[in-house]
């Protein structure tokens, strides 16, 4: 069900607007404040035009853009208390609508974090997520250090925020779902060559976890990059695409999510209730199934000894080929390197 783009909302459903935001052109700190004003105006206008909207999702890099020249400047980084975030929080409060936003977050102890927030209709931050897996070697961000976060959202939803490349790791979507999320938001700045990988991972993350996925990327370009792809989509818990966008910049894709359908499937399905069955292997033959861990990579990762068999042959293991400085060595007090971010 789509609700005809929010015109005919289904009682109890979550109406989501996914904004294929034009890649912002950002060169100076003042540009970020300008973009925040534009995003805030769009959010309020969307809620005014379509009152049924419960949640508006803007893409990764929606405030600070994609130019590497801006990424390497400390004065272009934000915090949760920065004025542009205050502007967006005030817009959610003014429109009484939830919003999802991206920020590159200042980090005095290393490289900045690639972060995101979900703001509720009163302007409070309901969820704060740091990207776990920066898109290396292209992105210089510090890997997230807070795990996966979830929060209660509108219409019976339990929300998680999966930031761009994190969605390529099935473990991230599984962790969010294991923590109870039934709606997985995914924001990105991906370019058009990733459209197929984007689609299949959004579908798989939904089906494998009996969750809805709602995903959107930047669109267009700022004259300095290959075009970002847009490609907003909502998938239901069976992995079926309910609504889908294209590459048009600033197109808004609106669709419905029924969190109760995912919740019911997780409780009532037999075949393909995979998130439950992962820890209850073979319950037809063995009461309650096996709940051991037969996966070597999981045990090794938990023990801090994750190594692929071809570890010594991997060619690219830092960002120097992409123009970044050497990475810092954690735990070494003599190492003051911050990669692209000199002290």
> Helix-strand pattern, N to C?
HEHEHHEEEEEHEHEEEEEEHHH
Radius of gyration: 20 Å
Supply the helix-strand structural class: alpha/beta
Q: Give the CA-CA distance, first to last residue.
A: 52 Å
How many E strands?
14
Main sheet specs = 6 strands, mixed
Q: Which strand order does the major sheet show? A: 5-4-3-2-1-14
Number of helices: 9
Catalogue the unreliable spans: none
**Share of β-strand residues:** 15-25%
Shape: globular
**Mean of the pLDDT scores?**
94
* Portion of residues within helices: 25-40%
Would you mind describing this structure in some detail?
The protein has 343 residues and is α/β, with parallel strands linked by helices. Helix content is 25%, strand content 20%. α2 runs parallel beside α4 and α5 runs parallel beside α6.
Quick gist of this model?
By secondary structure, this protein is α/β, with parallel strands linked by helices.
Helices, strands, pairings?
Layout: H1 3-6, E1 14-20, H2 29-49, E2 55-57, H3 68-71, H4 83-95, E3 98-105, E4 113-119, E5 125-130, E6 150-152, E7 158-163, H5 170-178, E8 183-188, H6 195-209, E9 212-217, E10 219-220, E11 228-229, E12 233-235, E13 241-244, E14 251-257, H7 259-268, H8 274-277, H9 296-302
Parallel strand pairs: 1-2, 2-3, 7-8, 8-9
Antiparallel strand pairs: 1-14, 3-4, 4-5, 6-7, 9-12, 10-11, 12-13
Organism: Gordonia sp. MP11Mi
Keywords: Hydrolase
EC number: 3.5.1.49
Keywords for this entry:
single chain, 343 residues, alpha/beta, six-stranded mixed beta sheet, globular, C-N_Hydrolase_sf, Aliph_Amidase/BUP
């Amino acid at each position: 069900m789509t609700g005809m783009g929010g015109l005919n909302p289904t009682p109890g459903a979550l109406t989501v607007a996914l904004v294929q935001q034009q890649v912002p052109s950002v060169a100076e700190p003042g540009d970020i404040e300008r973009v925040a004003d534009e995003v805030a105006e769009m959010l309020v206008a969307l809620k005014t035009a379509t009152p049924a909207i419960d949640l508006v999702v803007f893409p990764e890099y929606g405030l600070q853009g994609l130019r590497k020249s801006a990424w390497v400047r400390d004065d272009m980084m934000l915090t949760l208390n920065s004025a542009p975030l205050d502007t967006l929080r005030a817009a959610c409060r003014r429109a009484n609508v939830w919003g999802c936003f991206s920020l590159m977050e200042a980090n005095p102890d290393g490289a900045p974090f690639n972060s995101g927030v979900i703001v509720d209709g009163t302007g409070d931050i309901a969820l704060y997520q740091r990207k776990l897996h920066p898109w290396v070697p292209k992105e210089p961000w510090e890997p997230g250090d807070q795990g996966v976060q979830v929060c209660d959202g509108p219409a019976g939803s339990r929300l998680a925020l999966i930031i761009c490349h994190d969605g390529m790791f099935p473990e991230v979507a599984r962790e969010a779902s294991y923590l109870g999320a039934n709606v997985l938001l995914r924001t990105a700045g991906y370019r058009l060559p990733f459209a197929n990988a984007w689609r299949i991972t959004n579908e798989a993350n939904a089906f494998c976890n009996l969750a809805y996925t709602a995903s959107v990327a930047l669109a267009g370009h700022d004259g300095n990059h290959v075009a970002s792809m847009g490609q907003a989509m909502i998938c239901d818990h069976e992995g079926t695409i309910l609504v889908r966008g294209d590459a048009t910049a600033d197109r808004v894709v609106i669709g419905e999510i029924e969190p109760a359908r995912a919740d019911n499937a997780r409780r009532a399905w037999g075949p393909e209730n995979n998130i439950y069955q992962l820890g209850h292997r073979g319950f037809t033959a063995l009461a309650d199934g096996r709940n051991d861990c037969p996966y070597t990579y999981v045990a090794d990762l938990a023990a801090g000894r994750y190594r692929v068999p071809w570890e010594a042959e991997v060619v690219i293991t830092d960002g120097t080929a992409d123009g970044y400085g050497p990475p810092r060595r954690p735990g070494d007090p003599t190492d003051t390197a911050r990669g692209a971010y000199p002290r």
